[in-house]
């Protein structure tokens, strides 16, 4: 399943106008108000609900932290 509802391939110079609270996300830990020059690959338009905090973590660290916070609420698969 993909979160993208529509993928548009752009093959001509593309210069979108910046808008408040709409950002370009191209897969790493940065957001852009406009696309960087010569960008390639897949990027998505995103909007943030403020306030936002970003913490780098691995999937394993996330599972460990959540398990230690609310271990009684997690259902175990059999």
Task: Give the proportion of residues in helices.
Answer: 10-25%
Order of helices and strands: EEEH
> Widest sheet: strand order?
2-1-3
Q: How large, in whole angstroms, is the Cα Rg? A: 18 Å
- Terminal-residue CA separation: 25 Å
The computed structural class is little secondary structure
Major β-sheet annotation = 3 strands, antiparallel
Query: Strand content of the residues, in percent?
Result: 5-15%
Flag low-confidence runs.
none
Query: Average pLDDT value?
Result: 75
Number of helices: 1
**Cα shape:** elongated
- What is the strand tally? 3
Description:
- The protein has 78 residues and is largely without helices or strands.
- A three-stranded antiparallel sheet has the order 2-1-3, with no helix packed on it.
- 14% of the residues lie in helices and 10% in strands.
- It has one helix at residues 59-69, and strands at residues 23-25, 31-32, 44-46.
- The mean pLDDT is 75.
- The protein has a domain at 23-72.
Give a short overview.
The chain is low in regular secondary structure. The chain has a domain at 23-72.
Keyphrases for this structure?
78 residues; three-stranded antiparallel beta sheet
What's the arrangement of secondary structure elements?
Elements lengths: L22 E3 L5 E2 L11 E3 L12 H11 L9
Antiparallel strand pairs: 1-2, 1-3
